[in-house]
Specification:
Blueprint: H1 15-29, E1 43-48, H2 53-66, E2 69-72, H3 83-93, E3 96-100, H4 104-113, E4 118-122, H5 128-142, E5 149-153, H6 158-165, E6 173-177, H7 186-194, E7 200-204, H8 207-211, E8 216-219, H9 231-236, H10 243-249, E9 254-257, H11 269-273, H12 279-283, H13 286-298
Parallel strand pairs: 1-2, 1-3, 3-4, 5-6, 5-8, 6-7, 8-9
Helix pairs in contact: 1-13, 2-13, 3-4, 5-13
Length: 299
Amino acid sequence: MPHDRSLLTLLDLRRPDLEWLWLASAGWKDERSRRRRRFADRRVATIFDGPAFRSRLAYDTAIDAVGAHRVDLPVVLGEREPIADTAAILSDAVDAVVVRARDHAAVTELAAACQVPVINAMTDAGHPVEVFSEAFSVLERRGHLDDVTLTFVGEDNNVLRSWCELTVSFELEVRHVCPPGHSLDEQFREDLVDRGQRGRVTVMHDLAEGVAGTDVIYTDAWPASARVPGRRRTAFEPYRIGTETLDAAGENTLLMHAMPVHRGDEVTAEAFADPRSISFAAKRNLAPTHAAIVERALG
Protein backbone atom coordinates (compact mmCIF):
# COMPACT_ATOMS: atom_id res chain seq x y z
CA MET A 1 0.00 0.00 0.00
CA PRO A 2 1.54 3.34 -1.02
CA HIS A 3 2.23 5.95 1.64
CA ASP A 4 -0.74 8.29 2.09
CA ARG A 5 1.39 11.23 0.92
CA SER A 6 2.56 9.49 -2.24
CA LEU A 7 1.50 11.08 -5.53
CA LEU A 8 1.29 8.64 -8.43
CA THR A 9 -1.57 10.20 -10.42
CA LEU A 10 -3.71 13.31 -10.03
CA LEU A 11 -6.52 10.99 -8.99
CA ASP A 12 -4.65 10.62 -5.68
CA LEU A 13 -5.62 14.20 -4.82
CA ARG A 14 -9.12 15.41 -4.02
CA ARG A 15 -10.30 18.83 -5.15
CA PRO A 16 -9.57 20.47 -1.75
CA ASP A 17 -6.06 18.96 -1.83
CA LEU A 18 -5.40 20.36 -5.29
CA GLU A 19 -6.73 23.80 -4.39
CA TRP A 20 -4.65 23.93 -1.21
CA LEU A 21 -1.53 22.90 -3.12
CA TRP A 22 -2.12 25.60 -5.74
CA LEU A 23 -2.38 28.15 -2.93
CA ALA A 24 0.87 26.80 -1.51
CA SER A 25 2.42 27.10 -4.97
CA ALA A 26 1.49 30.77 -5.07
CA GLY A 27 3.20 31.19 -1.72
CA TRP A 28 6.36 29.50 -2.92
CA LYS A 29 6.29 31.65 -6.04
CA ASP A 30 6.46 34.89 -4.05
CA GLU A 31 8.70 33.23 -1.43
CA ARG A 32 6.25 33.76 1.45
CA SER A 33 6.27 30.02 2.20
CA ARG A 34 9.98 29.39 2.66
CA ARG A 35 10.53 26.94 5.50
CA ARG A 36 14.19 26.01 5.15
CA ARG A 37 14.74 25.16 8.80
CA ARG A 38 11.74 22.85 8.98
CA PHE A 39 13.15 20.36 6.48
CA ALA A 40 16.88 20.86 7.12
CA ASP A 41 17.27 17.26 8.30
CA ARG A 42 15.26 15.66 5.47
CA ARG A 43 16.64 13.78 2.48
CA VAL A 44 14.88 13.34 -0.86
CA ALA A 45 16.09 10.70 -3.32
CA THR A 46 15.71 11.48 -7.02
CA ILE A 47 15.72 8.74 -9.66
CA PHE A 48 15.52 10.01 -13.24
CA ASP A 49 15.39 7.70 -16.23
CA GLY A 50 16.68 9.71 -19.20
CA PRO A 51 17.86 13.33 -19.52
CA ALA A 52 14.82 14.86 -17.75
CA PHE A 53 16.22 18.38 -18.18
CA ARG A 54 13.21 20.33 -16.89
CA SER A 55 12.29 17.74 -14.24
CA ARG A 56 15.81 17.67 -12.79
CA LEU A 57 16.00 21.45 -12.70
CA ALA A 58 12.54 21.84 -11.17
CA TYR A 59 13.03 19.25 -8.44
CA ASP A 60 16.56 20.38 -7.63
CA THR A 61 15.28 23.93 -7.18
CA ALA A 62 12.20 22.78 -5.25
CA ILE A 63 14.10 20.53 -2.85
CA ASP A 64 16.58 23.30 -2.20
CA ALA A 65 13.74 25.76 -1.60
CA VAL A 66 12.16 23.61 1.12
CA GLY A 67 15.57 23.18 2.74
CA ALA A 68 15.94 19.43 2.24
CA HIS A 69 18.94 17.56 0.81
CA ARG A 70 18.69 15.91 -2.62
CA VAL A 71 20.32 12.52 -3.17
CA ASP A 72 20.52 11.77 -6.91
CA LEU A 73 20.64 8.03 -7.56
CA PRO A 74 21.71 6.48 -10.91
CA VAL A 75 19.21 3.64 -10.58
CA VAL A 76 17.00 1.89 -13.12
CA LEU A 77 14.13 0.28 -11.25
CA GLY A 78 14.27 -3.51 -11.40
CA GLU A 79 17.49 -3.66 -13.42
CA ARG A 80 19.93 -5.00 -10.81
CA GLU A 81 17.67 -6.12 -7.97
CA PRO A 82 14.00 -6.62 -7.15
CA ILE A 83 12.15 -3.33 -6.77
CA ALA A 84 11.08 -4.36 -3.26
CA ASP A 85 14.75 -4.51 -2.22
CA THR A 86 15.37 -1.02 -3.61
CA ALA A 87 12.32 0.19 -1.70
CA ALA A 88 13.57 -1.30 1.55
CA ILE A 89 16.93 0.49 1.26
CA LEU A 90 15.29 3.79 0.31
CA SER A 91 12.81 3.58 3.18
CA ASP A 92 15.66 3.48 5.72
CA ALA A 93 17.79 6.13 4.02
CA VAL A 94 15.54 8.98 2.84
CA ASP A 95 12.30 10.75 3.69
CA ALA A 96 10.77 10.83 0.19
CA VAL A 97 11.49 9.54 -3.31
CA VAL A 98 11.00 11.37 -6.61
CA VAL A 99 11.10 8.95 -9.53
CA ARG A 100 10.80 9.38 -13.28
CA ALA A 101 10.66 6.09 -15.20
CA ARG A 102 9.04 4.85 -18.36
CA ASP A 103 7.26 1.91 -16.71
CA HIS A 104 4.35 3.09 -14.58
CA ALA A 105 3.94 -0.40 -13.11
CA ALA A 106 7.52 -0.23 -11.76
CA VAL A 107 6.84 3.11 -10.06
CA THR A 108 3.59 1.76 -8.60
CA GLU A 109 5.45 -1.29 -7.30
CA LEU A 110 8.11 0.93 -5.71
CA ALA A 111 5.46 3.08 -4.03
CA ALA A 112 3.63 0.03 -2.71
CA ALA A 113 6.81 -1.30 -1.10
CA CYS A 114 8.22 2.00 0.20
CA GLN A 115 7.61 3.21 3.73
CA VAL A 116 8.13 6.81 2.59
CA PRO A 117 6.16 8.93 0.07
CA VAL A 118 6.90 8.43 -3.63
CA ILE A 119 6.29 11.20 -6.18
CA ASN A 120 5.75 10.24 -9.81
CA ALA A 121 7.90 12.66 -11.81
CA MET A 122 6.72 11.04 -15.07
CA THR A 123 5.86 7.62 -16.42
CA ASP A 124 4.39 6.33 -19.66
CA ALA A 125 0.94 6.52 -18.01
CA GLY A 126 0.99 10.04 -16.60
CA HIS A 127 2.84 13.26 -15.84
CA PRO A 128 0.91 14.43 -12.76
CA VAL A 129 3.19 17.08 -11.25
CA GLU A 130 3.92 18.66 -14.63
CA VAL A 131 0.20 18.99 -15.35
CA PHE A 132 -0.47 20.20 -11.79
CA SER A 133 2.01 22.97 -12.59
CA GLU A 134 0.53 23.73 -16.02
CA ALA A 135 -2.94 23.93 -14.49
CA PHE A 136 -1.61 26.46 -11.97
CA SER A 137 -0.54 28.65 -14.91
CA VAL A 138 -4.07 28.42 -16.33
CA LEU A 139 -5.51 29.33 -12.93
CA GLU A 140 -3.30 32.42 -12.76
CA ARG A 141 -4.85 33.66 -16.01
CA ARG A 142 -8.42 32.35 -15.77
CA GLY A 143 -8.99 32.28 -11.99
CA HIS A 144 -10.58 28.82 -12.04
CA LEU A 145 -10.66 25.50 -13.87
CA ASP A 146 -14.41 24.98 -13.79
CA ASP A 147 -15.96 25.83 -17.17
CA VAL A 148 -12.51 26.01 -18.79
CA THR A 149 -12.10 24.19 -22.11
CA LEU A 150 -8.66 22.82 -22.94
CA THR A 151 -7.97 21.37 -26.37
CA PHE A 152 -5.08 18.92 -26.47
CA VAL A 153 -3.74 18.46 -30.01
CA GLY A 154 -1.65 15.35 -30.59
CA GLU A 155 -1.53 11.65 -29.91
CA ASP A 156 -2.71 9.97 -26.71
CA ASN A 157 0.11 10.36 -24.19
CA ASN A 158 0.97 10.73 -20.52
CA VAL A 159 0.47 14.51 -20.37
CA LEU A 160 -2.99 14.27 -21.93
CA ARG A 161 -4.02 11.57 -19.47
CA SER A 162 -3.04 13.68 -16.49
CA TRP A 163 -5.05 16.60 -17.85
CA CYS A 164 -8.01 14.25 -18.22
CA GLU A 165 -7.68 13.16 -14.59
CA LEU A 166 -8.46 16.73 -13.52
CA THR A 167 -11.93 16.37 -15.09
CA VAL A 168 -12.90 14.12 -12.16
CA SER A 169 -12.63 16.97 -9.62
CA PHE A 170 -13.35 19.97 -11.85
CA GLU A 171 -15.95 20.92 -14.46
CA LEU A 172 -13.14 21.05 -16.98
CA GLU A 173 -13.67 20.05 -20.59
CA VAL A 174 -10.74 18.36 -22.29
CA ARG A 175 -11.00 17.94 -26.04
CA HIS A 176 -8.57 15.50 -27.59
CA VAL A 177 -7.89 16.38 -31.23
CA CYS A 178 -5.81 13.82 -33.11
CA PRO A 179 -5.52 11.77 -36.28
CA PRO A 180 -7.77 8.69 -36.34
CA GLY A 181 -6.06 5.79 -34.61
CA HIS A 182 -4.30 7.98 -32.03
CA SER A 183 -7.21 8.60 -29.67
CA LEU A 184 -7.42 8.22 -25.92
CA ASP A 185 -8.14 4.69 -24.77
CA GLU A 186 -11.88 4.25 -24.37
CA GLN A 187 -11.50 2.24 -21.16
CA PHE A 188 -9.49 5.08 -19.61
CA ARG A 189 -12.30 7.51 -20.43
CA GLU A 190 -14.92 5.17 -18.98
CA ASP A 191 -12.90 4.82 -15.76
CA LEU A 192 -13.00 8.60 -15.30
CA VAL A 193 -16.80 8.57 -15.66
CA ASP A 194 -17.04 5.74 -13.12
CA ARG A 195 -15.13 7.91 -10.63
CA GLY A 196 -17.89 10.51 -10.69
CA GLN A 197 -16.38 12.76 -13.34
CA ARG A 198 -17.57 16.39 -13.02
CA GLY A 199 -16.14 17.55 -16.34
CA ARG A 200 -15.88 15.70 -19.62
CA VAL A 201 -13.45 14.36 -22.18
CA THR A 202 -14.27 14.30 -25.88
CA VAL A 203 -12.30 13.01 -28.86
CA MET A 204 -12.31 14.85 -32.20
CA HIS A 205 -10.44 14.50 -35.46
CA ASP A 206 -11.07 17.96 -36.94
CA LEU A 207 -8.68 20.68 -35.74
CA ALA A 208 -10.97 23.61 -36.55
CA GLU A 209 -13.87 22.04 -34.67
CA GLY A 210 -11.65 21.14 -31.73
CA VAL A 211 -10.22 24.63 -31.17
CA ALA A 212 -13.45 26.59 -31.73
CA GLY A 213 -14.18 28.59 -28.59
CA THR A 214 -11.51 26.86 -26.52
CA ASP A 215 -9.70 28.61 -23.67
CA VAL A 216 -6.40 26.75 -24.00
CA ILE A 217 -4.72 24.94 -26.89
CA TYR A 218 -2.20 22.50 -25.49
CA THR A 219 0.18 20.40 -27.55
CA ASP A 220 3.17 18.12 -27.29
CA ALA A 221 5.81 16.76 -29.63
CA TRP A 222 4.69 14.47 -32.41
CA PRO A 223 5.75 10.83 -32.15
CA ALA A 224 9.24 10.23 -33.57
CA SER A 225 7.80 8.41 -36.58
CA ALA A 226 5.84 11.56 -37.55
CA ARG A 227 8.91 13.79 -37.49
CA VAL A 228 10.35 12.18 -40.61
CA PRO A 229 8.81 11.96 -44.10
CA GLY A 230 6.28 9.19 -44.47
CA ARG A 231 2.66 8.16 -43.95
CA ARG A 232 2.67 8.98 -40.23
CA ARG A 233 3.87 12.53 -40.85
CA THR A 234 1.23 13.00 -43.54
CA ALA A 235 -1.42 11.95 -41.00
CA PHE A 236 -0.24 14.50 -38.41
CA GLU A 237 0.40 17.51 -40.67
CA PRO A 238 -3.25 18.71 -40.69
CA TYR A 239 -2.92 19.08 -36.91
CA ARG A 240 -0.02 21.53 -36.94
CA ILE A 241 -0.86 24.62 -34.87
CA GLY A 242 -0.23 27.96 -36.58
CA THR A 243 -1.22 31.54 -35.85
CA GLU A 244 -4.30 30.98 -37.99
CA THR A 245 -5.31 28.22 -35.54
CA LEU A 246 -5.01 30.67 -32.65
CA ASP A 247 -6.99 33.30 -34.57
CA ALA A 248 -9.77 30.82 -35.29
CA ALA A 249 -9.94 29.75 -31.64
CA GLY A 250 -10.46 33.26 -30.30
CA GLU A 251 -8.47 36.31 -29.28
CA ASN A 252 -8.20 35.23 -25.63
CA THR A 253 -7.12 31.66 -26.31
CA LEU A 254 -3.84 30.60 -24.71
CA LEU A 255 -1.27 28.31 -26.33
CA MET A 256 0.76 25.94 -24.16
CA HIS A 257 3.35 23.34 -25.07
CA ALA A 258 4.62 20.48 -22.89
CA MET A 259 8.13 20.95 -24.38
CA PRO A 260 10.58 20.18 -25.83
CA VAL A 261 9.14 21.88 -28.90
CA HIS A 262 9.80 20.95 -32.53
CA ARG A 263 9.02 24.13 -34.45
CA GLY A 264 7.62 23.32 -37.86
CA ASP A 265 6.14 20.03 -36.70
CA GLU A 266 3.39 20.20 -34.07
CA VAL A 267 3.54 24.02 -33.96
CA THR A 268 4.92 26.71 -36.23
CA ALA A 269 7.70 28.96 -35.00
CA GLU A 270 5.38 31.95 -35.42
CA ALA A 271 2.65 30.45 -33.25
CA PHE A 272 5.07 29.40 -30.54
CA ALA A 273 6.50 32.95 -30.44
CA ASP A 274 3.04 34.56 -30.47
CA PRO A 275 2.11 36.62 -27.37
CA ARG A 276 -0.75 34.18 -26.78
CA SER A 277 1.80 31.41 -26.22
CA ILE A 278 2.58 31.14 -22.51
CA SER A 279 4.79 28.03 -22.64
CA PHE A 280 7.92 29.65 -21.23
CA ALA A 281 5.95 31.56 -18.61
CA ALA A 282 4.32 28.30 -17.56
CA LYS A 283 7.69 26.58 -17.17
CA ARG A 284 8.71 29.31 -14.74
CA ASN A 285 6.05 27.88 -12.45
CA LEU A 286 7.66 24.46 -12.30
CA ALA A 287 9.89 25.23 -9.30
CA PRO A 288 7.23 26.73 -6.98
CA THR A 289 4.61 24.12 -7.83
CA HIS A 290 7.11 21.31 -7.35
CA ALA A 291 8.12 22.87 -4.01
CA ALA A 292 4.50 22.62 -2.88
CA ILE A 293 4.38 18.94 -3.89
CA VAL A 294 7.69 18.13 -2.15
CA GLU A 295 6.54 19.99 0.96
CA ARG A 296 3.38 17.87 1.06
CA ALA A 297 5.42 14.68 0.72
CA LEU A 298 7.73 15.65 3.58
CA GLY A 299 4.78 16.50 5.79
